[in-house]
Every structure is written in C-alpha cells, then in structure tokens.
Design brief:
The protein has 196 residues and is an all-alpha fold. Helices cover 69% and strands 0% of the residues. The N terminus is likely disordered.
Length: 196
C-alpha cells in the first residue's frame, strides 16, 4: 500500500515528502523514470552543497552520479523513518566524505559571487576568503556538519540522521568547529601573529 493511499498529501501538508516516497517506491520496482524525477528534484540542492567544496563541475557531477547510483541500489533500504530528502542527503554526505578522504575533492576558495554582496564588495570578498580558509582548517567531519547546518539549513536532528551520528556528536563537532574557527579567524585576518 502506498503512503498516499493511507493519508492524503493535502492532509499532511507534506505533499513533496509523499511524492518523494512514491518515487522511492517506484525506484524499488526499478522505474528509471522515477530515478530521473528524483534526480531532477534534488540535483540543484546537491550542486549547491558540493559547490561549497569544489568548483570542478566534473567532480560535482561524479559525486551526484555516485549518490544516485547508491539510491538506485539501496532504495529498498529506505524505511520511511526520515524524510527522503534527509535520507538522500545522508547518502550524498557519505559519498562526499569518501571522496574528500580519498583526495578527490580539494577544498577550493569560493568566489565572492557565492554570497550576497555587501555594501563594500572588497570587504565581503575578504571575509569570504577568511571563512573559506578557516573552514579548510577543520576536519572533514566538522566542515561537512557546518556546511549542512549553515549553508544547507538542516536542523541538528536532520544532520544527525544524515551523518548517522547521535545529536550529541553533531553538537560536539559543531562546538569544536566553532572554537577552532574562533581561534583561527583572527590569525587569518592578520590581527594576531601566527601562521595562517
């Protein structure tokens, strides 16, 4: 029985979630059109997430393709305990983590166009450069958690689900990442002597 037969989408207010579940169910039955629909629904979000780590379109495309290959192979493992978007980001997180650890994605500086422009464009670019360099000094796990929270807008619970970690671990990674950033940012800005 499909989820939308149990509870109409309008009643839940989560029609996109219901539609995603239906797509996963179709993927389990090896419906390539459903995989394509899910890909098109999440492609931009994944490009935005991966764009925080590299500007190389070929690497971004490779990680996204690897992510959807896992979706195709593991769709029957989706149990509906989380939203499809959270489950999918968890797969993308693990594929990205593996690629980062293997050195496939080198953390590259972001260009100033990635963020909204401040009234002083040079100050904005400089701040973006400091933040990018600061993020590059974090462990891979800390950096991905910070990106999931502050760039992608995921809640602590969603990040815990995505990373297959307890909420306390997510909080600890974020705490240690913020402490490290707080210590390294003045050095990068040149206000404290040290090795940037």
């Amino acid at each position: 029985m499909l989820i939308n037969e149990v509870m109409p989408a309008a009643a839940t207010g989560r029609s996109a979630d219901v539609d995603d579940v239906v797509l996963i169910q179709r993927i389990v039955r090896r419906d390539k059109a459903a995989l394509s629909a899910l890909y098109h629904e999440y492609d931009r979000r994944l490009v935005r997430f991966l764009g925080r780590f590299t500007r190389r379109e070929d690497l971004i495309e490779e990680v996204i393709n690897d992510t959807f290959m896992v979706v195709w192979q593991k769709a029957e493992d989706f149990r509906g305990q989380a939203r499809v978007s959270t489950w999918l980001m968890g797969i993308a997180y693990r594929v990205t983590l593996k690629t980062l650890r293997q050195g496939g994605i080198a953390h590259e500086p972001l260009d100033g166009n990635a963020n909204e422009r401040a009234s002083e464009p040079f100050a904005d670019h400089e701040l973006t450069d400091w933040v990018t360099k600061g993020l590059a000094r974090l462990s891979v796990e800390q950096r991905l958690v910070m990106e999931l929270a502050y760039v992608m807008g995921n809640s602590l619970e969603e990040i815990a689900e995505i990373t297959s970690s307890p909420v306390s671990t997510v909080k600890a990674r974020m705490f240690h990442a913020r402490v490290k950033l707080r210590n390294v940012m003045p050095v990068l800005a040149g206000t404290i002597e040290g090795n940037p």
